[in-house]
UniProtKB/TrEMBL annotation:
Residues 483-728 form the ZP domain. InterPro entries: ZP-C, ZP-C_dom, ZP-N, ZP_chr, ZP_dom. It comes from the Eukaryota. Keywords: Disulfide bond, Glycoprotein, Membrane, Signal, Transmembrane, Transmembrane helix. This is ZP domain-containing protein. PANTHER family: CUB AND ZONA PELLUCIDA-LIKE DOMAIN-CONTAINING PROTEIN 1-RELATED, ENDOGLIN/TGF-BETA RECEPTOR TYPE III. It holds the Pfam family ZP-N. Residues 1-19 form the signal peptide. SMART domains: ZP. The chain crosses the membrane at residues 776-796.
Length: 813
């Protein structure tokens, strides 16, 4: 009892101490793999800004939230130019928490207390609620990841200077990110207020300030959400699933703009809220009176599309609720956000995640000039642009140079918001270096960093525009020296500048091949046709390729990501033509079959779904971005008319052999097995279909497609073409009909296309060696003198595109 009382008193002190100190906060999460006991490891980053540095205490509101295994907290940035109820200082801190979770069903985390710093729009108590969904996505086959976002949580703008704030919200899964005002009072927001004089573009996640009649701090309670770009399904460990639909044009045409009333409607705002004699828009929790109706709240644009099958859950009392002198009840409750027993196709337009993004925006008195570079600081070179991506590697410091200038004020500080352990260093007047060193645990993740320059003239403070960049943590950059002989490849990698590079954790394509070390270099020496070496050729060269990459620590119970990945190759000129033609082309197959005469099948690739422009064979191999649609056409020509073509099966392999052991089935028995396949024709002599580009795991840069097709008499219900998809475990139904003498369908014929390749992320440098004849290497075994060198280049394998901001198409507005 004594210990419980002590804990309760400590929590009470924290609640009282936080009154009038809250500037804002945010949260993101990222799955980090699986523990030895099968539980999922998830990292949460909770940011919070008070007038002094304070950690966060989030608790589980619903679902299985698991338990905290580690927690690290530290300061991000601080300043004495604040606007709290007690001091003029503020401090942003971040708490990095790892939770171990058994299962992956959705859950909610919450945090709440009192109070915001004094605000013009009367925001009192603060509420954080994060909806977390870690289901396995059908489109990525990985757990869902949240958008990453941050912001400076005290922004300043002169009253007479319009400004646009880009609220960075990047999604590592490539989802569509939307920003909206909080709509659920007591969960997402306190008063759910939309401040006058501001315009929120939900699609672009931008906040435009036009003009506010009253200076002071405005509190913003926003929610960041992510939606799929294409329909997909989330699968959960309890056997349930959740179907999510992509957004269409008409479902998200919403932007929030609140225009100030004319001056004669705004006389009451000339008095600050704490001096008003009439009740303000907010109240403290200890002053709360019973209410029979909920405060006005603007619902998100997708709210009306949801179907609620259960009643809303009761409101959970906060731990400090017993301190109230009056019992408060609410008869109007927010709709239920999640039901554990979700069924497929239910609530399909819900976002994957719902994350709070709260900040304060101080409207200062008018500036003498709104021109950047006069009083308001203006960023100059080498400051990165808003939205830039910066590459980083584990255990190596990344530096961002920021420089600002102003003619009539002095730049005194750069305010930053970023990951834990980020620092800033003044280099000269107006120039700063922002530095951060990622850890191995950060590999593969993306971290937003936002910054603002601040200048002063007397007691007046001016802020520049806010810029944000994304730091992507990839693998190390390592240079490899490759020596190509007539029979071997020799690879040398210097260890001095390669952090964590050790021969015991490196391997080639074939794990049976080991590497050596002489103390200064990691060495690999192997035959051209050994250790998993791949052989490619074009019209002029034969290319031998292999790869060195880091592997797991056999003595550790955790899994480490590949931090090093080096592709290298040796290229030799051909002396004679090889009979096997490797170069990709549009395959044309001619067959003679009884009853149908001469049949010709052609397998072509097209640039778009309108099939107007076929890819020229001179442009082969056809290259695609990962996930880009591949548009294919199989066409049949016969000496008889009235036919239709049917694709019975399609398989993809990394080589031109359709029976190769590594294969991926796209269509089987007429049934589509790849969810990205789309057919554009039906019952015609031409079959047009497409699917999204993919890549085989491992050292496979190309994909070959082989399809089995059947030509049938059109509109005949007894042909294989008319049967369509047939389950392989069920025999097709018998048809009782008179035997026909004329054949009505052909046998199965194989047509193929390939190779198709993914576009390279970086250029691979190769140096030609002297002439080497492939026939001599593999048949005669004669040795030719050949020496060459190529550079082994680290391949950054990221799953994201460059962060870009661009104008919306007119049909999306």
């Amino acid at each position: 009892m004594m210990s419980s009382a002590v804990v309760l008193n400590l929590l009470l002190l924290v609640s009282i101490a936080s009154a009038g100190h809250h500037y804002g906060g945010s949260v993101t999460f990222s799955p980090k793999g699986t523990n030895a006991d099968g539980s999922m490891r998830v990292e949460f980053r909770f940011k919070r800004t008070y007038d002094w540095c304070m950690p966060s205490w989030w608790y589980c509101a619903s679902g299985d939230c698991g338990y905290e295994s580690t927690s690290v907290e530290g300061e991000i940035d601080s300043s004495s130019n604040g606007r709290s109820g007690y001091t003029n200082s503020w401090c942003q801190s971040e708490n990095v928490v790892t939770r171990n979770i058994h299962g992956n069903t959705p859950f909610d985390l919450q945090d709440s207390s009192c109070c915001w710093v004094p605000t013009v729009n009367g925001v009192g108590s603060w509420f954080f609620q994060a909806h977390v969904d870690l289901g396995i996505r059908a489109d990525t086959n990985q757990p869902n990841r949240s958008p990453v976002t941050t912001t400076l949580q005290l922004l300043r703008v002169p009253q007479n200077c319009p400004r646009k704030y880009h609220l960075i919200a990047y999604d590592p899964d490539g989802d569509q990110v939307r920003c909206r005002y909080g709509a659920q009072q007591g969960a997402e927001c306190a008063t759910c207020d939309q401040p006058s004089g501001f315009h929120l573009d939900q699609r672009a996640c931008t906040l435009d300030y036009s003009y506010a009649y009253t200076t002071g701090v405005y509190g913003f309670e926003l929610i960041v959400e992510d939606f799929p770009k294409k329909h997909t399904t989330l699968a959960y460990t309890d056997g349930s699933s959740s179907y999510r639909c992509a957004l269409s044009g008409g479902r998200h045409r919403r932007s929030i703009s609140v225009t100030p009333y004319p001056w004669y409607y705004q006389s009451y705002t000339t008095v600050p809220w704490w001096q008003q004699t009439t009740p303000s828009q907010w109240w403290l929790w200890w002053q709360n009176q019973q209410s029979t109706t909920a405060a006005p709240a603007t619902t998100p644009w997708w709210w009306w599309q949801q179907q609620y099958t259960t009643a809303a859950p009761p409101v959970t009392a906060q731990w400090w609720w017993w301190l109230q002198t009056t019992t408060t009840t609410t008869t109007t409750e927010p709709p239920q956000e999640y039901t554990t027993s979700m069924t497929s196709h239910q609530r399909s337009y819900e976002p994957f995640s719902k994350l709070p993004l709260q900040f304060s925006l101080l409207v200062d008195s008018a500036a003498p000039s709104c021109t950047e570079g006069h009083y308001i600081p203006h960023f100059v070179s080498p400051t990165p642009r808003n939205g830039d991506e910066i590459q980083a590697t584990p255990r190596r410091e990344v530096e961002i140079r920021v420089k600002a200038a102003a003619a009539y004020t002095t730049v005194t500080d750069v305010i930053i918001s970023g990951p834990l352990n980020i620092t800033k260093h003044a280099l000269s007047t107006g120039e700063y270096a922002i530095r951060w060193t990622p850890t191995s645990n950060d590999l593969g993740d993306h971290f937003p960093v936002c910054f603002i320059a601040e200048s002063m003239s007397g007691s007046s403070v001016y802020q520049s525009e806010m810029r944000c960049v994304i730091i992507t943590v990839g693998r190390q950059t390592v240079d490899a020296n490759v020596i190509c002989t007539a029979t071997n490849m020799v690879v040398e990698i210097e260890q001095l500048h390669s952090v964590g590079l050790h021969k015991d954790y490196l391997r080639l394509n074939d794990p049976a091949c080991t590497l050596d070390s002489n103390g200064t270099h990691v060495l690999a020496n192997f035959s051209l046709n050994a250790c998993g070496t791949m052989i490619e050729e074009d019209e002029e060269f034969i290319i031998f390729k292999n790869e060195i990459f880091s592997t797991d620590d056999p003595n550790s119970i955790i899994t480490r990501k590949h931090e090093v990945e080096i592709e290298f190759s040796c290229r030799y000129e051909k002396k004679n033509n090889i009979s096997l033609e490797f170069t990709a082309r549009r395959h044309i197959t001619t067959i003679t079959e009884k009853g149908f005469g001469t049949l010709t099948y052609s397998f072509g690739l097209f640039k778009t779904a309108n099939y107007h422009t076929e890819i020229d064979v001179t442009a082969y191999p056809a290259e695609y971005e990962l996930g880009e649609m591949i548009y294919m056409q199989i066409e049949s020509q016969s000496t008889i008319n009235n036919t239709e073509l049917f694709v019975e099966s399609c398989v993809a392999t990394p080589y031109s052999d359709p029976n190769y052991q590594t294969s991926y089935t796209i269509i089987q028995n007429g049934c589509i097995l790849d969810e990205t396949v789309e057919f554009y024709t039906s019952h015609q002599p031409v079959v047009r279909f497409g699917l999204q580009a993919f890549q085989f795991i491992g050292m496979h840069e190309q994909v070959f497609l082989s399809c089995s097709v059947i030509l049938c008499e059109a509109n005949n219900p007894y042909t294989r073409c008319s049967q369509g998809c047939i389950n392989s475990t069920v025999a097709p139904p018998a048809h009782h009909h008179h035997r026909r003498e004329a054949p009505i369908q052909t046998g199965s014929h194989l047509v193929s296309q390939g190779p198709l390749r993914l576009k390279r992320s970086i250029e691979e440098h190769e140096v030609s060696s002297t002439v080497l004849n492939l026939n001599l290497v593999f048949i005669a075994g004669c040795v030719l003198a050949a020496v060459g060198m190529v550079c082994g280049v680290l391949i950054y394998r990221t799953k994201r595109s460059d962060v870009k901001y661009q104008a919306l198409k007119s049909d999306e507005i």
